[in-house]
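Objective 1b of the project was to move from sequence-level analysis to a structural picture of ligand recognition. The entry below was assembled by the postdoctoral researcher (A.K.) and checked by the PI before modelling. It contains the amino acid sequence of the target and the SMILES of the bound compound, pyridoxal-5'-phosphate.
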Amino acid sequence: MLNSTASVMEEYSLARWARQLKRSALQDMLVVGSKPDLISFAMGLPAPELFPIAGFIEAAARVLTDESSPLQYAPPFAPLRTQIVKLMARRGVTCCEKQILLTVGAQQGMNLLVRLLLDPGGQVLMDEVIYPGFQQVVEPYLPEILTVPHDHESGMDVEAVEELLSNGARPAFIYAISNGHNPLGASLTEAKRQRLVQLAAQYSVPILEDDPYGFLTYENEALPPLRAFDERWVFYIGSFSKILAPALRVGWIVVPETLIPQLSAVKEASDIDTSTLTQRLVSAFLHDHDVHSHIALLRRTYKSRRDAMLEALDKHFPSTARWHAPASGVFVWVEMPEEVNTLDLLQTALETVQVAFIPGQAFSVGRAKPATNCMRLNFSHCNEERIAEGIARLGQVCLKQ
Ligand SMILES: Cc1ncc(COP(=O)(O)O)c(C=O)c1O
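Corresponding predicted holo structure:
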């Protein structure tokens, strides 16, 4: 059997972009390191014990016994769009059903928008450290990637965006994670939100606002998303993955109504339709339960886990390491001294103390210096005790660097 990338390429003529795909050393390492005693801060997994399973069972039973067959091909489930309009209103966004397209999670939302907007070889603009799932979406287009630096607390450097645009850059879009940035944990300040949206309108460049963490805030109410400031140039991407459960694979995008027919055609080519069953299950759940009290429970739990992680970092990490308390999302971004290589550190941590995290270079894009001295730590999945234990173990390895 042919296994290696080289052998596959000898046998099959892969598309040009796919020839550059490499096996991820990181994935290999995480598989090797998945021992029973492993404490993983690697993936952005929600707390499994908080999935509202009883509510899902009731909702599923009701939906499955409904006469209007929930197992059939069907158009998008209209009542769910109305429920999303109400959810968006809670975030300060005014939109209507006709501006909403239901998707298979935020990942598909960004995929469809990228397919609609990006020509092969076109420009895209993003942070120099960004969610790898987005990098994977643009990869097939072999784009010219324009990056801007960031501030660890307030996110994307909007001045740098302005500089690029005023110097003639014309990206197909700006990709922005406005709240609880993955991996930085940063949330854009109000001033940055307003300025970014002004720039988008001034230069007629849409913003893809990826906001799966917008409901998960720990200090005050979140600032309104970028979409609240402009309905023409901000294309909003939302998801039930982090507030209900990722396995439902239900998300949505909010775009100008004129784009819905094109996006529906792109979606049809991709997967015909979002699962009728899970759309209806989410809708039934939202109808029968107060999702905001569920979100409040998530916020309390994750805030306590975040604080446990920050406390453990203070206690066990070297004084040369730097991090900020994220006001939203599920990640803490830690910067070690320049000379530390966190890929090597991960290998040692897996072998000696069975702790996993994602090294910074997995998130680096473009020509920027890779974040080889950084690490992303997730705090939503493990409870406070496991977090304290895992950070203490990881701290031992960091102190030896
Ligand atoms: C920034 C960001 N966008 C999108 C996604 C994908 O979300 P979904 O499960 O809704 O597809 C994630 C998942 O972790 C994410 O962190």
